[in-house]
Amino acid sequence: MTSTTLLLLVFGMGAIAWFFGRLKAAGLRSAASSPKRALHSLPNYHGWYVALWAIIPALLFVTVWNIVSPSLITEAALTSPAAQQLPQEGFARGTILSEARSIAYGNQSNAFNPLSRTMVGPYEEAISYYQTIGALAALLLVFACGAFAWLRIKPDLRARTKIERVTMMALLIASLIAIVTTVGIFLSLVFETARFFSMVSPIDFLFGTEWNPKAVAGPRGETGFGAIPLFWGTVFIGAIIAMIVAIPLGLMSAVYLTQYAPPRFRAWMKPILEVLAGVPTVVYGYFAALTVAPALRDFAVSIGIAGASSESALAAGLVMGIMIIPFVSSMADDSIAAVPSAMRDGSLAMGATKSETIKKVLIPAALPGVVGGVLLAVSRAIGETMIVVMAAGLAANMTANPFSSVTTVTTQIVKLLTGDQEFDSPKTLAAFALGLVLFIVTLLLNLIALRVVKKYREAYE
Amino acid sequence: MNSPTITDMERRPTEWQGVEMQKRIKRRYASERRFKALGLAAILMSAGFLAFLLIVMMSNGFRGFTQTELPLEIDFPAATGGASASQFEGQNGLANMQSMGLQDIVNNSIEIQYGADGKDLFSSGGWTAVGSEILNNPDMVEQKTIIYLPVDAALDVAYKSDGNEEAEARVEQLGDQLSTGFNWNFLISSDATDPMQVGIWGALKGSLITMFITLLLAFPVGVLAALYLEEYAPKNRITDLIEVSINNLAAVPSIIFGLLGLAVFLNLFGLPRSAALVGGLTLALMTMPVIVISGRNAVKSVPPSIREAALGIGASPLQVVFHHVLPLALPGILTGTIIGMARALGETAPLLMIGMRAFIATPPDGVTAPATVLPVQIFLWSDEVNRGFVEKTSAAIIVLLLFLLTMNALAIYLRNRFETRW
What we know:
heterodimer; A: about 450 residues; mainly alpha; MetI-like fold; 2 domains; 15 helices; about 75% helix; flat; B: about 425 residues; 3-stranded antiparallel β-sheet; 18 helices
């Protein structure tokens, strides 16, 4: 019996338990002669009460059993006569066992090693034995707990209160998942980064200027894990080129849409701008690599710029800037809308033209909000992956020439983790160190941005 | 006119009709017009970029849905020694075809009709197309039949646009024999090494399974968390921590979620690589904060009078929320969920981290089977050297954009149709 059928069976029995619980409660309810004997809760709650009693202990048991049973199965398989022929210790034994296990579970159809074929039989036996035991125990548990709860149904059972307590727990657990995820991200990054720093010095990593990761250190102990070129490339593309595109276009779009555009034009253009944000980044990346980058290279060659590459920082930055436009524009839109209209009306009443009001009153007043929005946009741009992976190249150059190729933190994370993967090599661990840097920087940018925006909102409220 | 002294100026009212003033006003109005035009230019430029991107993808991509074909005459009765149609009906059809040596029959026919190097004209997997034709219409094996087969990738490129010299010369030579047909294969098959044989169904199915898992996990958790935070959470440090975590998670770069998936789901829990299950889990963690944030806004917009009325007639706090607030907030929550799911559908980077970039030639048949998703497939094809992949990549992008557009349209429809303004 597979775990899927078992789960279906458990839930099916839960449904039956719900039915019987409700039935009994409904019977009690109609039989109640005096108000004193009336049910505390509606019969539905009794149904849920029995169903939850039936399902939850069984589910807990199945979870625990799934964790425990693999080692029991291995032990049982090892006592079989076939196991006597296995090599006693070490790596060979482990590979044979894992091969036999994956055949027995049906994940693999053929064995490399003849020895693992002999082990498949005992494994299958052990698996079916323990799976049957587990399934029987789980079903028994469903029945026993369900029956216990059913017997407890009496007019004064506070079923609703109990159900509500369980639901509250579920609500709380759902909320705590966010914390667990954050902690999980932080811990996994920190843990792997610590392992990386035990192989490569943090100083070399953070301040080294040569990025050329090798699995083994070179003759003078150099490892090629100097991340400064990556940081520069990230800032160059995400915070400089992309922002040169996105800030003017986004800001002016927001100004035009909020201050000038007729309502119909606004109603059409705003969703169109939002579509820009909804296009998947892999599409932008393909667009940058296929169309923008070759055009830029030809342009650079025609005006005689040396070192023009077909994977240029400019192509990636430009397309990333386009992607960020709706983000900047909606943030600017919000902050301009938050400026009290008295300020605007005052300026207009003094005889200023609309553009003078915008330039001298609205934008200065909205500036903190706009700056916060730009910071958020930068944090999004430096974490963006697919555009730079597809269009920016892999050469770790420290150059300010936008037509040459630079590489970024996210590009290198992808490159380091999609090649051959041995998990203990500094090359793979370096990806986690880069990830940690990226996580911390984006976190700080977001915190600062949110604080700036919040302060500014309070100032006008 | 004497130049006025300062005291004169202070005393005299502004001369609105004066030359100076008129000039000044003209200048200010001109700058006003310039500024307005600049704003319009900015927004048209942004929209222009979008239009340009879509046009480039469309013009490349539509060709991906077609294929260039050459007619091939196969004399089945002669080649098979009189096979009957009934052999290829039903379950055993494919096996019978293979035992009959269909590939050799096709190759021989090519040789008869197009000469010894005629094989180079056709896509290498073309004989499978003959196979599926026979399965659809077994009667054809009892007579001489003309079948249109896809040509070689280089020839395809040369016929549709401009290919290399050799292929162009061939196209010239074949002339009218070449025709264009709809590439059904693209919609029903999976990844392959030959661009004429690739299809998106495998990736699409992977995407659908992954999205299903994401929805299954992220939606209940997101909704419950939103309800808790908005309706019940006491003001204390844990609640603050939850709120900070959710806001941060919504802003964490997606690739970091990929690193989490790699370190926790693959290395710690030992779940299988490239599986839709792991992809769905990772994307669920990413989508959950989006659902929580939109869900909270939807719950917040339900007016307090409804809660008070329900409490007033004796509902418990939980009944208030689950019987009254949640149904009223549901359209808003669904809108946010669809938008979050659309974002997850287009996500590539985290899935690269957990190994969903393998070459998958058969559609996944379960949550733990190796799978790939549409955006990753696009990324993989974009890396291919063969020029035939360019239009396939764009065609896959069109399919992806269609899905996203549909989801967003659905979200907008839901919002307009069901959302109540209180």
